[in-house]
Amino acid sequence: MIIEDTPAEAAVKAGPDILEITAEGSRFVEAPELKGKLVDDTIAVLRAKYGKKAGIFCIGPAGEMMMYSAGIASPDDDDVQLRYAARGGLGALMGSKGFKAIVVDDKGSTYKAPVYDRELLQETSRWMAEALLKDPKTENRNTYGTSAILALANTSGLMPTRNFSSGSFEKADDIAGERVRKEILSRGGQAGKPCVAGCVIKCSNVFPDKNGRQIVASLQYESITLLGSNCGIASLDDIAELNHLCNQVGVDSIETGAAIGVAMEAGIIEFGDAEGAKDLVRQIGQGTWLGRIIGHGAKLTGRVAGIRRIPVIKGQAIPGYDPRGVKGNGVTYITSPMGADHTAGNAFETLKYMDVLKRDGQVAISRKLQIRAALLDTLGLCLFVRPPFVNRPEQFGNLLKGRYGWDLSFRDVQLLAWDTIKTEREFNSRAGVSEEFCPIPEFMEDEPLPPKNAVFDVEMDEMRKMWEGGFTPLDEF
Ligand code: SF4
Q1: How far lies 436's CA from each of 86, 390, 433, in Å?
Q2: Percent of the chain with pLDDT over 70
Q3: pLDDT band at 223 (very low <50, low <70, confident <90, very high)
Q4: pTM here?
Q5: How many Cβ atoms sit within 10 Å of the Cβ of residue 461?
Q6: How far apart are the CA of 71 and the centre of ligand 1, in A?
Q7: What is the pLDDT of residue 469?
């Protein structure tokens, strides 16, 4: 389904619509009662109307106001967690089309997705699950969630701190994975929760307050660093509440944490002022002028405030890995179609096998990581399922053969990823977005990042040539 154009101004003023997809087809349903509602309130109204089993995607007031940091929320199966298509302003796009929610309700449908070879599909899926359960990373992620990496990010000097002025936070122990787990378990929350049925890694969690009442689900590394250390905030309760507020007004917690960090640098509030930060997020939902500025993200906030140190690439806030502290990520941020997106090719793992502060080799490693990430994304797999495929990359072909009957080698599957990257780059090129147009923020080339005191110094010329020469298959995954 492709939705084109925007509704007339009068229709937008009257209130948003729901895009309803059912066994009978799809249609827009007027829903003025959802206008301006927070995400949880929106879901409650939709549950009452469509029941427990309907699939729901919705935006908060930030999306309705077409703010650049607005995302699209989706509750998990038991309405405990909110997961987000958070980055890139998709919520603003949805808001611009005049609809507040997409509801998929298959009641009455007899359609079953065809499976070419059920036995092969099940056998390959079983192999994947068993191999994942044997991988030590699975236990680590299950135990500590994505914040398992926080202590290493901090000691490696790459964790955004006080608007990217340091790579290390003196109160990191208060917000690290071990502390997250301790608080969750002592307060009766839940660690090791899946975000989708069938996941064996289960890296999500439910983070409660001191009385055992849920604050947010799930609390993750990126939100902890951007809303925490990057804002000088060291209380997990405050960070969780900030994360919850972002989820409710419907904005990306990475972009919002970066925008608040910029606002703190500008003196709008002080670093460490958790209550001030919460007020700014509430103002996003209320649509005050200051809230609208913050809700448009770090770039606009920095420009309006007259700040030189704005941590964005291609207009998008840099996530929890400062590019001076892990240069492969800087290359990914500059050369990937989405800009500052760690999921496009995260070089954090290269801490284990290369010097992440040297510029040599970073372009080659980022290229490999980007093809890998595009492959998993294209197949609709979580990025964390990679380990079993390292030794048996041909299993990608078996998954696709089982489901669709296609005969694809590992090389063929990589071509799918390559095609995705090419298409996205072509889109950018037609939109006038290039590496040179949106380079690394100048301060990251000039200002050494404590405690390792590195600057970002990978040559633009080398990065520009990254995708030249067409497709070269990876010999390993
Ligand atoms: S699908 Fe991925 S993100 Fe979700 S719980 Fe499993 S490992 Fe975590």
Answers
A1: 25, 34, 8
A2: 100
A3: very high
A4: 0.97
A5: 8
A6: 19
A7: 84
